[in-house]
Design goal:
heterodimer; A: alpha/beta; 2 domains; 14 helices; B: mainly beta; OB fold (Dihydrolipoamide Acetyltransferase, E2P); globular; binds zinc ion
Chain lengths: ~375, ~130
């Protein structure tokens, strides 16, 4: 396998982008990444997008978008693992370059979620659960994570205050990210006093509905050395992809995320790294309980210690392992297919030392983790800057 | 809207609680599958699920999805039946939300679940009620 580097990143402001269409927000992010890399052609395009069919009534997305970018003719494919689609897009791009099939790949993620009403958005997201045996009975995604949260609380003593601490931290981080959907200072009391969505999860425990796109350009190390000049080169050293049952009914332990653990084990093994080596991480905090459970599944904390760690500030700036410096899904926003790619944008920016006020000093090794549905799929990547 | 066929083919499971017991290892699969995830077996016999069980975990949904609007608060639970099979169902007829608890005994009853809009099918299945 060939070594693969990230040579360009692109991100645009996320939010409720009423004036822009899916194709516009995608093209803007793609151009930003191509400009950052300083390339005007690519050999392949991957697009992580969960459900353009339900969100905007458009399938056959890859060709549409390649054409929109002025690249009709270039091989392009949309890939999907629900909310983990963006992470999968990087994995597929990595395989293209590592295998030698392509030298330069444009890896993208996009979701346009506000072109339908909230009920239809909720329905579209719900299709990531088992339609016949979960959604049929009326369960929602907040509901599924609420059920996991209840058991995590019962088993480990995790508290609503600890869940709230995740939200407070990620909103504080987003204040430093101009591209984030929300710039809103929150307190633990604000979170606990907000509307209950699915007991024990409040509205401020949940990530929002977001329009957004993100892109990175990856290339073989040879190409990267040729074109990046004096800029630091960020290498993709580990990649892990895993599946699990998508129904909670068939999952043995509902207080852990086996797919995340497996994907992480594979990524750590490939990179020759252990959890303690990681300096900065972007993880899938679709709900506050999810950040707590993923920081445990990734090995940053022992099972049951994710809650206390969040409350003690171990995942904040200057903590043991800063998590979601971008604001995370909670506050940066969660356009589902774009999320996994935006995580890579943030970590690569951190490793290049270009994160401005959000910069984690001395960050040289970073991790991204995203997951689909209630943990039925997971993708983990490890990125390292060449010294 | 769902076609009648999509609903009809699930009737044995939804209406009569039919499950598939693997003749190789005894695992009971609900819903039935083509291959047993435990032993790889492909031979099954039809069994009926017991109606009694306990709540493994639950939530009270205040913002229900399409098809369930007007039903809030919607109680959803993962229920473990007496034979170990787990299934996601609504919990109905809860007199007092404070009575809900992990480990609470429930039994399954045949109920109307939802409607597919004004002109679509009415879906039936099972809900749990306090035992
Ligand atoms: Zn079997």
């Amino acid at each position: 396998m060939r070594d693969v580097a990230i040579i360009g990143v692109g991100m645009t402001a996320w939010g409720e982008l009423w004036e822009k269409s899916l194709r516009t927000i995608w093209t803007e992010a793609a151009l930003a990444a191509l400009d950052d890399a300083g390339v005007d052609h690519v050999d392949y395009i991957t697009i992580g997008c969960m459900s353009p069919g339900l969100f905007v009534g458009q399938e056959h997305l890859a060709s549409l978008l390649a054409d929109e970018l002025g690249m009709a003719g270039v091989p392009a494919a949309r890939v999907e693992t629900a909310c983990a689609s963006g992470g999968l897009a990087l994995r597929m791009g990595l395989a293209e370059v590592a295998s030698g099939l392509s030298d330069i790949v444009l890896v993208t993620g996009v979701e346009k979620m506000n072109d339908v009403d909230t009920a239809e958005t909720t329905y579209a997201l719900g299709t990531a659960a088992d339609q016949e045996w979960e959604a049929f009975h009326g369960v929602t995604f907040p509901g599924l994570y609420a059920m996991m949260a209840r058991l995590h609380m019962a088993k480990y003593g995790t508290t609503s205050e600890q869940l709230a601490a995740v939200s407070v931290k990620n909103h504080a981080n987003a204040l430093l990210n101009p591209d984030a959907q929300y710039h809103l200072k929150l307190t633990v009391e604000d979170v606990l006093g907000s509307t209950m969505v699915a007991d024990p999860l409040h509205i401020f425990d949940c990530s929002p509905i977001t329009d957004g796109a993100a892109a990175v350009v990856i290339a073989s190390m040879d190409v990267a050395r040729e074109i990046t000049g004096d800029r630091p080169i960020v290498r993709i050293t580990g990649s892990g992809l895993a599946t699990d049952t998508i129904t909670l009914a068939n999952r043995e332990d509902l207080t852990s995320l086996p797919a995340v653990r497996k994907a992480a084990e594979r990524a750590y093994a490939m990179a020759g790294r252990v959890p303690g080596d990681i300096h900065v991480a972007e993880v899938h905090d679709c709900f506050t309980i999810a950040e707590i459970m993923t920081t445990e599944a990734l090995g940053f904390f022992e099972p049951g210690q994710g809650g206390p760690a969040a409350e003690k500030g171990l995942t904040g700036h200057g903590g043991k392992i800063p998590v979601n410096t971008s604001g995370g899904l909670k506050a940066k926003g969660h356009p589902v297919g774009a999320t996994g790619v935006a995580q890579v944008v943030e970590v690569a920016t951190q490793l290049r030392g270009e994160a401005g006020q959000r910069q984690v000093e001395g960050a040289r090794i970073g991790l991204t983790q995203t997951m689909g549905g209630s943990g039925g799929s997971a993708v983990v990547h490890i990125l390292e800057v060449e010294s | 809207m769902r076609s009648p066929g999509r609903s009809w083919r699930e009737h044995p499971q939804r209406y009569r609680l039919e499950a598939a017991k693997c003749t190789g290892c005894g695992r009971i699969l609900y819903p039935p599958r083509v291959v047993c995830p435990d032993c790889g077996g492909r031979e099954f016999e039809t069994v009926t699920l017991p109606r009694k069980g306990t709540i493994v975990t639950y939530t009270v949904i205040d913002v229900p999805p399409t098809g369930f609007q007007g039903q809030a608060p919607l109680v959803l639970a993962l229920v473990e039946l007496e034979n170990g099979v787990r299934t996601m169902v609504q919990v109905a007829d809860v007199p007092d939300m404070d009575r809900l608890a992990v480990g609470m005994p429930v039994k399954l009853e045949f109920r109307r679940i939802s409607e597919d809009g004004e002109a679509g099918l009415i879906f039936y299945g099972h809900k749990a009620v306090p035992a």
